[in-house]
């Protein structure tokens, strides 16, 4: 056993020596690449809304300075299309009085959305807009119910 101890010490010393000497990268001169960038960096994210065109759902992307919460995305539906989107024939069936929305996450892949307008007062296309816009957020549950004022719409998934 006494012979094994010096061998271990020698092996540990060699390992330390190899680590200290590096991997063979040699030093180089400074490489000039020009001045650093100037100005602000505009970070944007893309959000997805479902608007209506010719009586059907149409996915629309909008840039945003930050990620939006589900309630903020739904508020954009109630606010309607931008002038540019309107010029493309896009609209919304979600009335302005549907905002604000309450979002309640449920267990087992379900979510409940409660607009300020009773769920039963919304057109079927408005309900689809709400469900698909809420489902467009990563990590959304599979089934979403739109409810409110004792009237609701059964849980559904996004048909688009």
By DSSP, the count of extended strands is 6
* Order of strands across the main sheet: 3-4-5-6
- Low confidence ranges: none
Q: Main beta sheet: strand number and arrangement? A: 4 strands, mixed
Short synopsis of the structure:
By secondary structure, the protein is an alpha+beta fold. The chain is built from four helices and six strands; from the N terminus they run αββααββαββ.
Topology (SSEs and partners):
Layout: H1 4-21, E1 45-53, E2 56-64, H2 70-79, H3 83-87, E3 102-106, E4 110-114, H4 124-135, E5 143-146, E6 153-156
Parallel strand pairs: 4-5
Antiparallel strand pairs: 1-2, 3-4, 5-6
Explain the overall architecture.
- This protein is an alpha+beta fold and 160 residues long.
- Helix content is 28%, strand content 22%.
- It is built from 4 helices and 6 strands.
- It has helices at residues 4-21, 70-79, 83-87, 124-135; strands at 45-53, 56-64, 102-106, 110-114, 143-146, 153-156.
- Helix 4 links the parallel strand 4 and strand 5 (143-146).
- Helix 2 (70-79) runs antiparallel to helix 4 (124-135).
């Amino acid at each position: 056993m006494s012979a094994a101890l010096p061998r271990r010490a020698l092996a540990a010393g060699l390992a330390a020596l190899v680590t200290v000497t590096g991997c063979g990268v040699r030093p180089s001169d400074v490489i000039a690449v020009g001045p650093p960038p100037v100005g602000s960096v505009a970070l944007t994210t893309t959000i997805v809304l479902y608007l209506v065109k010719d009586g059907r759902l149409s996915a629309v992307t909008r840039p945003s300075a930050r990620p939006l919460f589900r309630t903020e995305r739904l508020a954009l539906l109630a606010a309607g299309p931008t002038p540019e989107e309107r010029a493309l024939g896009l609209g919304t069936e979600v009335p302005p009085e549907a905002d604000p929305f309450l979002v309640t996450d449920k267990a087992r892949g379900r979510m409940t959305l409660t607009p300020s307008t009773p769920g039963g007062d919304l057109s079927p296309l408005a309900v689809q807009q709400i469900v698909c816009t809420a489902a467009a957020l990563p990590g959304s549950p599979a089934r979403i119910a739109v409810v409110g004022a004792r009237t609701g719409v059964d849980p559904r998934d996004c048909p688009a």
